[in-house]
Write a structure and sequence with these properties.
By secondary structure, this protein is of the alpha/beta class. It is built from seven helices and twelve strands. The protein has two domains: 86 residues, Translation factors (Elongation Factor Tu (Ef-tu), domain 3, Beta Barrel); 146 residues, 3-Layer(aba) Sandwich (Rossmann fold), CATH 3.40.50.
Amino acid sequence: MADWLTATVVENKQWTDRLHSLRLNVDYPMFKAGQFTRLALEIDGELVSRPFSLVNSPDTRPLDFYFIEVLDGLLSTRLAKLKPGDEIFVAPKAAGLMTLDQLPEGKHLYLLSTGTGVGPFLSILNSAEVWQQFEKVVLVHAVRYQNELTYQATIDAIEAAHSEQFMYVPFVSREAAPDVLSGRIPQAVEDGRFEKRTGLKINADDSQVMLCGNPDMVLETMDVLINTHGLKKHSRRDPGQISIEKYW
């Protein structure tokens, strides 16, 4: 297929009834941690593609894509059925600005995600640059149910390698679970529970915040950070502290 790379499925790991990690073997060019590319399948004679973030770090393979099967989704329902040895098309170049080289200087980096939005942050956390750039790095993963707190072995390995710098804060909103914060990210930031958990203060002098996931979470959390913590949205023309990826 012209302008696409042909990849082979290495693993289709099913975490829950709808959450999958699709791992692909392909000779893929270098990309930046935090970027995304496109996956495609031929369906009824047409090539159907969607963007997916790269979970693996730039220097590791296979490529790793974390996705949710949308029950009526044209592509995701087919991705969920792929087996080792099956072929799939991958766009030959990654894109996206949720990368460390886009951030201004700061001491503390907050990676706030919901659902599959944790994917690009795992790529960043498995890259050497983040530990050289920031003194403290906080990963937040917010889900509905505890079994959706995936990639625990990866997170444990990050914590073991960077115990003085790294902090993991899971959220579960729809059931009681041990050692997690309940409810949603914006409310916990606004009412102080999040800062109490981390022992760190979010402020414009020390902090950089990256938001990825549910658009409601992204916009609500950004509003809270702007209105109660004095942060502002970051752009290359007007540097600030909040970088966002709505993810769908």
